[in-house]
Design goal:
- The structure is a homodimer.
- Chain A is mainly alpha-helical.
- Chain A contains 8 helices and 3 strands; from the N terminus they run H-H-H-E-H-H-E-E-H-H-H.
- A 3-stranded antiparallel β-sheet of chain A has the order 1-3-2.
- In chain A, strand 2 and strand 3 form a beta hairpin.
- Chains A and B meet through helix 1, helix 2, helix 3, helix 4 and helix 7 of A and helix 1, helix 2, helix 3, helix 4 and helix 7 of B.
- The structure holds a DNA duplex.
- Chains A, B: This is MarR family transcriptional regulator.
Chain lengths: ~150, ~150
Amino acid sequence: MTDHNDNFEQDGDLLALESQLCFALYATQLSMSKLYRRLLKQLELTYPQYLVMQVLWQKDHLTVSSIGERLSLDSATLTPLLKRLESAELVRRQRTREDERQVEVSLTDRGSALREKARTLPAEVERASGCSTSEMKALRDQLNALKQNLDRI
Amino acid sequence: MTDHNDNFEQDGDLLALESQLCFALYATQLSMSKLYRRLLKQLELTYPQYLVMQVLWQKDHLTVSSIGERLSLDSATLTPLLKRLESAELVRRQRTREDERQVEVSLTDRGSALREKARTLPAEVERASGCSTSEMKALRDQLNALKQNLDRI
DNA sequence: GGCCATTAAATCGCGCACTATATAAGTTAC
DNA sequence: GTAACTTATATAGTGCGCGATTTAATGGCC
């Protein structure tokens, strides 16, 4: 609480920051990350690691770049992350025989099994977000549309 | 481009990731960051640094924690960031006389002047986002509502 | 005064996210 | 077949963002 002497300015300029979509996006994403950090603690995963696991649960045996396309992340981010997942024995990484440049990432048994522990997560997040399912869908679609606009530049 | 052999799976599971609001939020925020990185390059600022500058342009002479409240960031993030702004000679940092625990952050002339260079930025972002102003406002309000829900836990 | 709890910043360590660059495997052109 | 180009991953360095701890100043409370 900043107690005094900055209330009379809140109508003019202070709102300038709060009026910005970009800041709302930034700050909301941080709040969402914090929620996930709490929920993912028991799985010993970070949110980006959880995203990679979700990708692999949907389709196993993907190359690094294929995971990268799905998440809009590149090898500089993914390689160390995947190494951490590997040392947690959730995935394996091996060069493909057909093309030795590529690295195929596959789930271990532990990695596959973790999916069951993660099943309750979406419901918990939805509860915490406090929006109706339709509101969440609408928001999601608007965000995806915005992202598409931002990416076409 | 992943060319073949994973198109027939896109209806079932692949959409699970894309169906999630959280991922949309995450990915859109990354895209927005990329846009800002490009636009802020000429100002030699990162997006979080730009946020701090906006806060100070709105109200100068704030303590670290007061900036932190406005941006939902703590001293572990802000102290090094502010030191970078200081060494770029955009802000000054000095302990307040009344309470030596506090550090007051103030704009230098250079820091104030930078505001003029930043004036064109919001319009450029708005153009890139490709949404109407009313759409952006609606989206912003929904995000703020979501953030508020996420924070009350 | 002296002790204790509280508060404000700073520090440490880790994990992204990204730019730029490197390495190495594959492909093309000649 | 080899030089030139392209592609897939990895590495190096920077800057957040945060949990956990530390340091130092302040405010009671006796």
